[in-house]
Amino acid sequence: MTDEEYRAYYAAAYSRVVGQVYLMTGDLSEAQDVVQEAFIRGWGRRRSFAEGDAPDAWIRTVARRLAVSRWRAARSTLAAWRRAGPAPDHPGPGVETPLVVAALAKLPEPQRRAIVLHHLCDLSVDQVAAEVGVPTGTIKARLSRGRVALRELLSSGDETFEQTVGARHA
Question: Could you give the CA distance from residue 9 to residue 11 in angstroms, rounded to a whole number?
Fold first, then answer.
């Protein structure tokens, strides 16, 4: 089958084969996906299809096998989720969160990034340094300076700071 013949066959057969696979799978979207994939795989074999031959059976078989494979994968995934159980319940942000976020926003970006990665993402100093692309000593300095600045911002009782935070998060 030539390229043009295969394109013409695709245009003529796609809807028909989708309808057939839909009746087998019961899911129109899945049928469209697997038939499309089967036609793509058939493109590589188009020269082996005999002239005048409509390879519906081959396309249908490949599409059905793809649908079964996807169904099995989805079933395995669902079983794994059931075995793992529900995700642990993480408490939502506390009332202090807006203050911390506002205080972090006042820090220089390198310090803020180091603090978030180290303290909130639980990365080691070496991991933070690798992710940021700077020496470990630089991360240690940023963490130290950032902690001092955060401590001052959060414990100062700065009314201007608290009013700004209150206005932003009210």
Answer: 5
Number of domains present in the structure of the chain: 2
Tell me, letter by letter, the H, E, C secondary structure of the chain.
Answer: CCHHHHHHHHHHHHHHHHHHHHHHHCCHHHHHHHHHHHHHHHHHHHHHCCCCCCCHHHHHHHHHHHHHHHHHHHHHHHHHHHHHCCCCCCCCCCCCHHHHHHHHHHCCHHHHHHHHHHHHCCCCHHHHHHHHCCCHHHHHHHHHHHHHHHHHHHHCCCHHHHHHHHHHHC
d(CA 109, CA 50): 65
The whole model's pTM is what?
0.48
Range of the domain at 73: 3-84
Reported as a single tens digit per residue, the pLDDT across 82-101 is 888 877 777 776 767 788 88
Residues in the chain: 170
The CA distance from 150 to 99, in Å, is: 10
Domain boundary among 35, 54, 84: 84
| Residue 133: inside a domain | yes
